[in-house]
Amino acid sequence: MPAIVLLTLLFLLPASASAQVYKCKGKSGETAYSEHPCDASAQPMKLRDERPAASPPPMMESAPQESSPLHESDAAPAPAAALDRSAERECIANATASIYGPSNDRVATYQQQMTMLNEQFGNATDAQRSDALQARMANLRRAISREHAYAHEQVNAARRRCVEQYRAATP
Fold it and tell me: What is the structure's pLDDT at 166?
């Protein structure tokens, strides 16, 4: 039954949806997919842009169009600009992986500690011990929030540096 639901959801996804997807291996060998890099060595997956058309649409005959500045601006970007965009995207992906990877590892450690404390809290019979465990768990929650905020701040700063570096080089 869950497989049918999953398959149905996959068919309902729009074909044109695009996002950066990373394939990662977990510590126990399982495969995980994420929009954020799991570690510094994570590489983005290459996804198909569009489904191939079954047949090209029929060509309609029309009067020749005059060249206008409006049509010229719709032209494809110059190859140098495309290379700069590619280098910019690679810079952002590398920076993101190098920041989120270690951050995710630290958060995972905090979450393991939270799980351990939660088990101890469930077995605690002393009110003073329960209060101490709750205080430690609250500290870990704050540490996780700070870690997420710091990582997002670092990624945004790295993204700005990459954009400035590669867009400043483009004339």
Answer: 83
